[in-house]
Amino acid sequence: MKKQNSKYKKSVLFLLIYFPLHLSSEAHAVSLIASVPNAQTTPKGVFMIAHESQVPYFPDPGKANWQTFNFFTYGISEQFEVASTVYNLTFPGSGRLAASIGYKWVAPLSEQLKFIFGQEFPFALQGNVSVGHWTFTGLSYNFYQTNTRLTAGINSGSSLIFGSNVLDGFFGFEQSIVPHWTLIADWYSGKHDLGVLITAIQWNPNHSLTVITGPKWGNPGSFNENGWMLEITYEFM
After folding, report:
1. What is the pLDDT of residues 85-127, one digit of tens each?
2. How far is 30 from 161, CA to CA, in rounded Å?
């Protein structure tokens, strides 16, 4: 047991030190609305770091009650970002500690419509050596008259991220209400680990900091419990 704990501590130390230094010159996970890909990329030459936590309202001692995503991004151009993500850092007992590298490309098709495409390639840091995938594509439309953005698409992913192999859809909603405040919602279909609806409020006090928080609801038939999420993002301009 002590040997396993030592290996885990070394893995955590490696992730916390190596990835941020490495990514400052190369890459994050992709930038998101709350959980699904958004129609923006990290600005060119900017490094972004983010943490997202999800917890159930009624924790069960036998389950992974604290689900986390820690990710980093770097803007290569105004339309392309590279990224890395760390999954399950707070729950080594899950046996699914993993990291990934990836990218996202956002191409404007018109003044209001954008095309989104990206991929991540996760690799296991616990248990058997394995490499997975996540591929997503979609469209995002901005209604200028109401400051509303709708995003929809499909994605395919493996068990390292989703808990099972999936092919499903995603949807996102962003509504600016007053300066610095936005209502958001996003949803993955399916019964996998990320199959939830999140509704939240987004606060942007300045150009660097973003705070998102709100309730989440697990899809019917999935093992996801209702709970709360918090995401904090910071861009190093």
Report:
1. 887 776 655 666 889 999 999 999 999 999 999 999 999 888 7
2. 13
On the 0-12 / 13-18 / 19+ scale of CB atoms within 10 A, 1 is: exposed
Helices (H), ranges, the chain: 2-23, 159-162
Both tokens assigned to 20: 């941020």
Written as one string, the DSSP assignment of 111-144 is SSEEEEEEEEEEEESSSS--B--EEEEEEEEEET
Q: Please, which residues bridge with residue 104 across strands? A: 81, 118
- Report the candidate in 195, 188, 136 with the shortest Cα–Cα distance to residue 163: 195
Fold of 2-236: Porin (2.40.160)
pTM value is: 0.81
How far, in Å, CA of 233 to CA of 43, rounded?
14
